[in-house]
Amino acid sequence: MNKKDLLPILFAAGLTFLVTKPVDAHHAFSAEFDAEQPIELKGVVTKLELVNPHSWLYLDVKQPDGNPANWGFEFGAPFSLKQKGITKASLPIGSEVTVQGFRAKNGKNFGYAVTTILSDAARSKPAARRMHRAPKKTRRSNQNLTRKQRSSFLKTKPTQRPTLPQTVLLLASSVLLLALAAHNVNAATQKIPRLANGKPDFSGIWQTTSAADYDLEPHSNRKDAPPSAGVVEGFYLPYLPKALEQKQKNFAERDKLDPALKGYTLGVPRGIYYPEPFQIFQRKQDLTLVHQFGHSVRTIHTDGTGHPKDPYDWWLGDSRAHWEGDSLVVDVKHFNDKTWFDRAGNFHSDALHVVETWTFLDPNTIEYKAHIEDPNVFSKPWDLSVMLYRHREKNFQLIEDYRFTLDYDEHYPPKPDGK
Does residue 16 or residue 249 have the better pLDDT? Predict the structure, then answer.
């Protein structure tokens, strides 16, 4: 089975590198590592092995008793690392790093590195800054120079500072480029659809292409989900210990417990990134969201009214919004606890509080962000973001998708003989 791994990310000396591992035929991520056991360890590098098909990073991690324990982390493929300018000099022995990833299923001191962060001390070392070599073509051409040519090349005078007229010209060019960039941004903003009152008009049929509904957090491929890097800022949800236990139980029985499988209302924010379209009808005083799944209807009030003082707990909460420039900011609360965030069992309590931000990136693309708080489940607030795309296909429309009625279809319409 081919392996579609996550993208390990290496941060070093202020530069960001994406390191993709090659397709590996002899084992899969899920066979060796546990996507349900994220780990974060800080330690000192003891060895870096750049060998095919996997590189390995080893570090000593200080234990509670003060003694070090050596951990090994599967890293990017050497070829991919080299393409990004990453060599052994990038992670010198003795440098301090923090590794975030997943633990091995066998419980030993091994893991899969998703993120490796060098400490500030390590970044200051010259070896950590030598990230790139001269292109091969340049090195070969230098070798073909005669001794006299190489001598002349080495004695070339350093580049002189620009004269005053040159400096003025450079500044003028920079100002012009900035003005053109600002003009392009303003032009894109002016093109977005607007209501008669000048506010952005989000009316239309929208849908995400993300895999957020399968699992908000990074995960490898599994039988019921494609792999994904996740949509959560910081990668993982900050569960309280008891809540994490419940999440793990939900995951284990997700094929039975997921409310969506029962046809229930998806809730907020799940209804936005569920892989079915929804339609927005917008007026000055409100937005009405109609979801294809379950045909749920949600109203976002933009008339300046506040949340009810003696509310019920709703499946979709109560939504009150205001404008911040061209962004719609929606405060949503008064939920019940009957919905999940995704198919992986990520859940909430009735203390859930969501703050959404809707912003046009262009006339047919919305950036959707959600800030989540729930002190009964999470140790701190967290954020997610997805892109929404306008459906522009000819004659595209919502088609009612009622799941909970399917078990009763055989009884309707009633038969004349009552059978």
Answer: 249
Together in a domain, 259 and 379: yes
Residue environment code for 78-91, b if the CB has 16+ CB neighbours within 10 A, otherwise e: bebbeebebbeebb
Q: Would you say 225 and 215 are in contact if contact means Cβ atoms under 8 Å apart?
A: yes
Cite the DSSP H helix spans in 192-289: 241-252, 254-257, 270-273
Tell me: do 113 and 218 sit in the same domain. no
Task: Say whether pLDDT at 257 is over 90.
Answer: yes
Domain membership of residue 15 (yes or no) is: yes
Q: Is residue 149 part of a domain?
A: no
Q: Match 């002190």 to its residue by tokens.
A: 375
Question: Cα–Cα distances in Å, from 400 out to 192, 293, 295, 406?
Answer: 29, 7, 6, 12
Residue 142 lies in a domain: no
Together in a domain, 175 and 248: no
C-alpha span between 142 and 147 (Å, rounded): 10
Above 70 in pLDDT, residue 315?
Answer: yes
The reported pLDDT for the residue numbered 168 is 54
SS3 141: helix
Residues 366-377 pLDDT 10s: 999 999 999 999
359 pLDDT more than 70: yes
CA-CA distances (angstroms) from residue 150 to 144, 147, 156?
Answer: 9, 5, 10
Both structure tokens of 351 = 């203390």
Which candidate, 363, 364, 400, 365, places its Cα nearest to that of 386? 365
**pTM of the complete model:** 0.58
Q: How confident is the model at residue 20 (pLDDT cuts 50, 70, 90)?
A: very low
Task: Indicate which CATH number applies to the domain containing 37.
Answer: 2.40.50.140
pLDDT at 188 over 70: no
pLDDT given for residue 184 in this prediction = 52
- List of residues 6+ apart from 10 with CB closer than 8 A: 16, 17, 19, 76, 84, 86, 90, 115, 116
State the residue range of the domain holding 286. 204-390
User: Tell me, what amino acid is at 242?
Assistant: K
Instruction: Read off the pLDDT of residues 273-286 as tens digits, 9 standing for 90 and up.
Output: 999 999 999 999 99
Number of domains within the chain: 3
∠ CA 353-213-250 to the nearest 5 degrees?
A: 75
Question: Do 6 and 18 touch, CB atoms closer than 8 A?
Answer: no
Q: What is the pLDDT of residue 301?
A: 98
Length of the chain: 419
d(CA 216, CA 248): 14
Whether residue 379 is found in the same domain as residue 298:
yes
